[in-house]
Design brief:
Four copies of one chain form a homotetramer. Chain A is α+β, with helices and mostly antiparallel strands. The first copy, chain A, is built from eight helices and seven strands. The longest helix of chain A is centred in the C-terminal third of the chain and has 24 residues, at 170-193. Chain A is globular and about 50 Å long. The two termini of chain A are 29 Å apart.
């Protein structure tokens, strides 16, 4: 055993599961994890279950070899290994994001709220190194290849599959995952209208720094309140 | 009488009706059936009613000549006759699917979740053999022609009407019907962005085999929980 | 006074207001009326109020000169005058219909459910005869011109404004108004995919005759059940 | 202290926050303010909070230098300073509006309800005078520049950010903000169909004058009723 996780992290991870479902980022599939605060080579993730249904009891194991977490737990493990600055990871099939992964049209921030996704997002294609698979990322070699495509950025798309989004902590990762979805929707709508002027690299940098402030708490409070069947003071 | 159906099949068929309505696949129209588990030349289907309103009492007859099921019950009968591997059939007018049936743009899987629809889906046009009709499929000859267009595949589109989706059992058919709808939405969005790279034939095959595992139960549990006014343990 | 309306008509007209709101055809604006069953030169319509909020008390006047109904009550009066076969009228700003009115792209049925809108729908432009107005139809001369554009058809679009939909009775008019909205959504989506094959004139005729049967009651029961805060047996 | 605001203004401002959230104009971000009725150089605005969560207690300060209102309070201050005819201001990131700000495609009224946004809407770009920023409008010089781009019109778009909408009072500003969103959605859909005929300048003028009448109260009553968990007689 590597230490029981603090209640605050457990609560936030349950809420992160519910928020990402309620905001249309996750559905029956996809997952979110948080690095263990005191044993940083471990992380918390649910047993295999639709995120909307995840409860504290589903999280009560520190993932590694033990337990029976999601098949694609290797994605999370690889990102935490490669990126010491990352405290939380979301893997989703967010509908608005999929089209960018299968067309190669660059997914770029077009408004200040979208700046949290970073100025550049690459598309990783499992077929490039691993041939014709079922597209799941299970092996450490596959996950390491995906993490390499992520590099030092916030998000990476996966062709024919979905995306991975990271954050310094759970709230930051949830914020980035939601606004990746929102920005993708708005960019697609804008591209149907005409030529699009996105944020410049400096604008993206400055706006995303600004959003690291109180904005995250304000959004988190809002998303918690929007959860169905939940008391107003969680 | 050909044997009272087991409660589990009745429960699942009621839930299938409700899930397909709640997930946007069926509305006031469309229907889902299940092959009778002990008398395989019979199947269970509701009396004529909007799927969201179907209750166990609406299903308590084994369909054949008797009873007063949906006008298009011939669709189900023909598919069960032709396809001994099929245990459940969905006929829907899912909104995202209709445009592919009237334009002839191929509906193909573009992400691993969409692989369950199979690599190829044909469009059947009732007018080709039966002229200008009201587009309903009532006669056995019409239904057999539709079943022939379905062939050994999972789904077939009907021009100016909707689609038929099959599965080894109810959960598989519901899963395929939902993801046919989701994949059609995503493909249409992708085609508006640019040239689309879909799954290869081998990727489709491998991903759909993978999804035949625990994924179906995880999605079913989620869709049941999302039903309005329903206890958490159905 | 021209006779108190039967409770059944009042109930159905209240439900028609609520259903059309709940199904996205009406919002704060638009209205639905029913010809008075015993005094056919009169019709029932609500006082000025958002349709979702209409109650029986709002309908308790037979409209003509008296009362204070919607500003555009002339639309209804003109259609009932010109069309003895019409028993109910809907005027809406349904979002999916507006784009066809401002582009002139023909709104045609593309699937059997859409056949109820008829094979041809004209676009009426108030500016053609009445110049630059606020686009409301208040004067009898304006309403008569609109009714002439409607002719013997089921529906007519109004440029920069909305549409008028008719039916033999309330349930038929509601059915046509809902499927005008659905078909417009599907046609727009299809046109973005490629060249569209709509229903032929004979298919439209046959399918719309078929839908005059039990389909309307099945849909009505479903739409009533979907209303918020309503007992299951209305 | 500059006088306690009357309860009616407080009630309406709380409702305006909730309505704009519920109707999809505001989400976790954006804000709405009302000029103080007795001290017109002051205005009421919430403390920093998601609009859906705003309560009367959040508004109990007359904004100026004191209190801790939204970071972009300068937008409101500048508009009230420049426009004595304006009694309420909305700043939003309404999704359907963003694409017009980043493509430069003119956002114009295409139906009578959309006429309230005015015949012309400019796009203001903070980068033009202030270079590469985080896109927030904090300084009075920035806000004055934005107010100058607004001029005597109802609304102005902000490139890569959102928009500002004004009204003679709260209900008028809410009405304009909602229909700016609706009209943008419809215009984008229309432009995907074909060439669009919008309202003429005279039609826009006449329709918007007509909508200044009872229409606003009818819509307000409807939007209040649609709020979740609220008694029917607010």
């Amino acid at each position: 055993m590597s230490g029981f996780p603090p209640p605050q992290v457990v609560d936030d991870l349950v809420l992160a599961n519910h928020i990402l479902s309620n905001e249309g980022v996750l559905d029956a599939f996809g997952h979110v994890s948080a690095r263990h605060p005191t044993t940083p080579d471990r992380f918390l993730i649910s047993q295999t279950r639709a995120p909307e249904l995840v409860e504290a009891g589903d999280l009560a194991r520190v993932a590694g070899a033990e337990g029976r977490p999601y098949e694609e737990v290797a994605i999370h493990a690889a990102v935490y290994r490669e990126r010491s600055d990352v405290g939380a990871v979301v893997h989703s099939h967010a509908p608005s994001v999929i089209p960018f992964g299968v067309t190669g049209v660059p997914l770029r921030p077009i408004y200040h709220m979208g700046s949290v996704i970073g100025h550049e997002i690459k598309v990783w294609d499992i077929a490039q190194r691993f041939g014709e698979t079922d597209l799941l990322v299970r092996a450490a070699t596959e996950a390491d290849d995906l993490a390499a495509a992520l590099g030092g950025r916030t998000a990476v798309l996966m062709r024919g599959h979905g995306c991975v989004v990271t954050g310094a902590d759970l709230r930051a990762a949830v914020f980035a995952a939601v606004y990746l979805e929102r920005n993708a929707t708005l960019l697609a709508a804008s591209l149907r209208l005409g030529e699009v002027r996105g944020l410049s690299k400096a604008e993206t940098q400055r706006a995303s720094e600004m959003l690291r402030g109180r904005a995250g708490d304000r959004a988190w409070e809002y998303w918690v309140r929007r959860l169905p069947h939940r008391a107003t003071n969680p």
